[in-house]
Amino acid sequence: MIGFLPTIDPEVWQRYPEYCALSVVVRDFRPEPGAPIPAIPLEPPAWLMDHMEAWRAAFRAFGANPKKTPCSVEALWKRVQKNGSLPSIDPVVDLYNALSIRFGACFGGEDLDRYAGSPRLVVARGDEPFDTVRDGVPVVEHPEIGEIVWRDDRGVTCRRWNWRQCKRTALNEDSRNLWFVIDRLPPMPIEELLRAGNELVAGLARISPSITHSVDLLEPAPHPSGRERV
């Protein structure tokens, strides 16, 4: 897909003016047999607890209960605290899950080629389809009205900002063009957000040296007066 660049709806910026994200597009991903899998220590940064609290507040603001549906990094951190490790899924998911703990940020990874149009972060109307699995059976759900979701032209690709991804755009062993998004709220430093993207690309390049990539910081445009929008 040419011109694949995620967008943030202005209403999301108005509600959460300090939010920003890093979009990482990786193309021609072809894992080399025997390629080393980067070892990422599961040592969280100093801002992890405060960052998770910021996400809890963001979730509560659009009506979600973060105790029942925590942000992705909090869900991972609970697993680390319980088991001392993260479950192994595949090299790509294992890499970005470990980096999620390392940087205390929510990471998402999806198959770019399964998108219908580019991703956009929006306030849900409540009628958008979201394909998932419940009790082992494929089902179509719908977000709550006012929920913050990622979506494309066919429906919701991730509910509650970074809580649960759909099945349609999920990565698998045949995925060759990948899209990652890393979410940030204060107090995570933007410099660390950029560093997280660099380490993600470096890790993927060790698995597949032939990749090409692009990285874009998604942040509110400056106000014409020189002030940021609020």
Sequence of strands across the biggest β-sheet = 1-4-7-8-9
Count of distinct strands:
11
Q: Ends: how far apart?
A: 33 Å
Strand content: 15-25%
Radius of gyration: 17 Å
Averaged pLDDT: 93
CATH C-level class is Alpha Beta
> Helix count?
5
Largest sheet: 5 strands, mixed
Shape: globular
Stretches with pLDDT under 50, minimum 5 residues: 223-230
How many domains make up the 3D coordinates? 1
Description:
With 230 residues, the chain is an alpha+beta fold. The chain has one domain: Phenylalanyl-tRNA Synthetase, Chain B, domain 3. 27% of the residues lie in helices and 23% in strands. It contains five helices and eleven strands, in the order E-H-E-H-H-H-E-E-E-E-E-E-E-E-H-E. The chain has helices spanning 10-15, 48-61, 72-83, 91-103, 190-207, and strands spanning 7-8, 20-27, 106-111, 120-123, 130-134, 137-141, 148-151, 156-159, 164-165, 178-184, 212-218. Strands 1-4-7-8-9 form a five-stranded mixed beta sheet. A four-stranded antiparallel beta sheet has the order 3-10-2-11. It starts with 6 loop residues before the first strand and ends in a 12-residue tail after the last strand.
